[in-house]
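Recall the central idea of this unit: under ordinary conditions, the amino acid sequence of a chain determines the structure it adopts. In this exercise we apply that idea directly, starting from the sequence alone.
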Amino acid sequence: MLHRLPRSPGSLVSAALIAFTAVLGASRQAPSPGSSDAFEALEQQATEVAREVEELRGWKFKGPVKTARASQAEARRHLEAAFDKEYPPNRLAPREAMMRLTGLLPSEGDYRAATLAMLESQVAGFYDTEAKALFLVDQPGTMPPFVLRTILAHELTHALDDQAFDLAAIERAAGDSEDARLVFAALAEGSASALMMQYAARRLVAGQIDAAGLQAYLEQEMARAKLLENLPRGLNSLFASYICGAAFLARKDVAAVVATSQREIGENLVKALKDLPRSSEQIVHPDAYWDAARRDEPVRVDDASAERWLREGTGQGVAWRDTFGELQTAALTEPRDLQADSAKFLSAAAWTNPGAI
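Accordingly, the structure predicted from this sequence is:
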């Protein structure tokens, strides 16, 4: 999970991708991150995993990555501060009204509370592009070493990419629209997810997995997938950045991501960060970006005349304005009575529908 305001819960998506990788391809558990010994062990593991990340991607860290620990209360305060900075009251109120009107949020829904509850219940760690530090959030219970190292691989990929490109600067340059944010998140999370999947696959093949511990952890995490199925439609599309982003950078179906060279994914990331995709459509349909003959650029809609008509004809004005792409339009056009299915999160094609194309 990349931080400024985390777009998606990291631990649950990581668990889902680990399970997906295992399908493709001593029961000792790690100490709780709440102890000093555990934190020292974490720092050592982070150093070891960083070398493996370098080997997989073929890049080198420019310097050591600072590792820090955060309690659940500290993580909560961090999330609240980030949310309130991104959505001050004058920006939150019209957005929330739009989401209620369009069905992206229940009529009595509280966008801030729902977002924070989702993130707080799931976040296990995050890389902060401002602090240039990897934070691990104290969690109750224990985590199998293989799972912890795999999550570290995901977060350290963010650190590697950040040292190479300054992700915060690229995010600012990408734009502030809803669609532009999803595009940037797809590149950042897709890069980390693709490497994480290959990292997990390599350790699976090498027999470095505690099968019993992994199974127990996955059962625990995937049981919480019901949370995704009950999320307001305006929130569950945030998970698309992991799946669609990985497939976009591999230029393949999600199932083929683990077989794609990390060097190739790194090269594609460099190209995409230098020439950012223009819309989430290009993320969902990679050929619309990578194939020059089929590149489909977004069409900007000039709504000035509609706003003028609204103001002059009815005396009303525009309360909220933003740019939605295919990912958000798919959420808008999804039937309200459609049965939610968390399995769809492992398919890039499932994030769109005919009404959004």
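Residues 178-205 form the longest helix (28 residues).
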